[in-house]
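Sequence, please.
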């Protein structure tokens, strides 16, 4: 199922991915992946995320060698078109958080940040990105940003959408924060996404990425799920 969600819909890349998947995982895995791709095409990301969550307990039952093969195949599928979409970025983070830590016995992050203000630049990156990707225009993005940051002691200028590298660095720092600080950033991001009462696929993907990366439970998705891809 995960392979199916990651298969490219662009005919320029799909044949190569199918060939690789058959070679590395077998013909039956390839056929199942194509079936899942067809069945999930057009689904809102909130529903795709729910499918991923259902698959995690089964994936934890893999042997160490099976996990390594699964991890390597997903990495290849994500990198095959030389760009990482937000959904793929989210899948990477989910695998790292829920499977990497389980199979690779990674230790819990040491708490280094007990005050939200110490992570204000990183918080600004995350809230700015959430505000931007769900907005119909610059004014909507600014309104979402201002509402989400209204309780901040110091407010920085909205950045717009950050790169994956910037998001990675911000998430890595928040993963070392106290539970209270983690909750503060997640509430701010959910507030930004909920500003218009609707949830786009990209907003759902980013919220799940943030929650998984910092190890903080995600509250119910806010507002109305918008079925069409944004």
């Amino acid at each position: 199922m995960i392979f199916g969600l990651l298969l490219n819909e662009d005919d320029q890349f799909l044949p190569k991915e199918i060939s690789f998947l058959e070679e590395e995982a077998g013909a039956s895995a390839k056929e199942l992946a194509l079936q899942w791709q067809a069945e999930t095409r057009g689904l809102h990301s909130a529903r795709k995320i729910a499918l991923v969550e259902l698959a995690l307990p089964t994936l934890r039952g893999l042997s160490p060698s099976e996990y390594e093969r699964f991890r390597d195949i997903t990495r290849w599928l994500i990198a095959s078109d030389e760009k990482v979409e937000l959904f793929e970025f989210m899948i990477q983070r989910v695998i790292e958080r829920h499977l990497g830590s389980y199979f690779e016995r990674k230790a819990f992050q040491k708490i280094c940040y007990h005050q939200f203000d110490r992570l204000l630049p990183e918080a600004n990156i995350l809230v700015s990105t959430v505000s931007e990707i769900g907005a119909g225009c610059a004014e909507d993005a600014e309104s979402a940003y201002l509402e989400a940051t209204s309780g901040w002691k110091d407010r920085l200028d909205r950045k717009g959408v950050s790169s994956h590298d910037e998001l990675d660095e911000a998430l890595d720092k928040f993963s070392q924060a106290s539970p209270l600080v983690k909750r503060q950033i997640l509430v701010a991001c959910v507030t930004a996404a909920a500003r218009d009462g609707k949830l786009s696929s990209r907003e759902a993907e980013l919220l799940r990425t943030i929650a998984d990366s910092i190890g903080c439970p995600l509250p119910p998705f806010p507002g109305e799920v918008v079925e069409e891809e944004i």
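The mean pLDDT is 88.
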